[in-house]
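hey can u check if this looks right to u? its 441 residues, i copy pasted from the old doc so theres a chance i mangled smth
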Amino acid sequence: MLFLVLMATLAVGFAAATTMNAQIAKNERAMNQARAAADGGMQFVRYQLGQMGLASTVQTSGLMDAVAQALGQQLNGTPNMNGHTVQNSGGIIYLPSASSWMTVDPGPGTRFRAQITQSGQFLVVTTTGSGQATATASAKAIQIQYQKAPKAGAILNYGVASKGTISTGGSTLIQGQTDPTKGSVFSADMSSSTPVSIGGQGITGDVSVVNPNAIVSGGPIGGTSDPVQIQKHIHLGVPPPVFPTVDISVFTAYATNRYTGGNTLTNCYIPPNTNPKFAGGSTINGVLWIQAPNVVTFRGNCTINGVIVCDTSGPFDPVNNQLSFAGNVSATPVQDLDPNVYGGLTKLTGAFMLAPTYYVSMTGDFGTIGGSAVVGQLSMTGNAHGTVQGSVIGMTDKPMTLNGHASITISSTGTSNYPSGMSFGNAYTPLPGTYLEVTPP
């Protein structure tokens, strides 16, 4: 009897231990699944915050509303939101809501939810993961701070880009200087059935258009006149890149001298309605700030040692806002200026002309331009030739035309050369060293 009692006791103990071990293993698995779900949720939120394109003008006081609007554009109506919408609820953004979850794996029932709050200029993201679909006792939560980061401008990967149509004719050539693919063309126009029409000597790069039903006419394209090969260099229905927001204030701070006449202008601004006409031999040193409205004409040779910027506050006005270059232009970038004389201006690199509300016409050679040119509308005719160390960007839906013997050689570094005065919006990226495991909210 004693041995029977002992064996029975041991059996009960073994059974209890086995049951306890199974429960512990189950709990460990649930906690690991919850932690993995929280990590997966953080990766989801990280991707969404990285896709945003908040305007550079968003202030800290309106940050949460702007984030909620941007995330709503990306997430509302998607299965992840389970019928909810992104809202700023008293300074907290819940994804998908305060009491709902997003499914990670429907098999084991892992899921997560997230909340975003603000701490000064930073966003604080907390994701809570659950390893079971019916219980939150094993929930785990992690937290990371996110910082603002400027988005790269994908449009800078194109040699010539415009919101409107682009046409070339005569003996025009758009080419890459060291890489033929840099001589590329992009049009975001959706109203014309033929947003890009290539004539003359053609282009050495590809043509990309947003309209999936568009017709790209002419050639050569991609350096070939073979109709079959040309089709390999035409891309329809491409996602529209963000066009830049132009802020000339970084340059206008240096333009302290009022224009009163003469042909040599150093860090100068031209008041509205001056409408000056410069004869041959004019020289621009540093910044030339053209205030609107103004029709500015350059005749003969013009030397630009720096950058031209134009007012951006008003609408595009091709009649009252014009820049006309009828002679040859010799240009050097701001980084070639003497830093002992021009100070911090020499660090504002990457831009040659920022004139998004101006009509710009060029009929003569323009040498090598040390930066991108952003204009409202561009027309090149005559013998306009030159090299652009950046991109040429048309900011309106007006046609961009290159005719006669005009040609552009693109020597662009793409998004690795981020031009001063141009912004493509802001996203948010994780701030290193801020990862924490916290109590689930």
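The first helix runs from residue 2 to 51.
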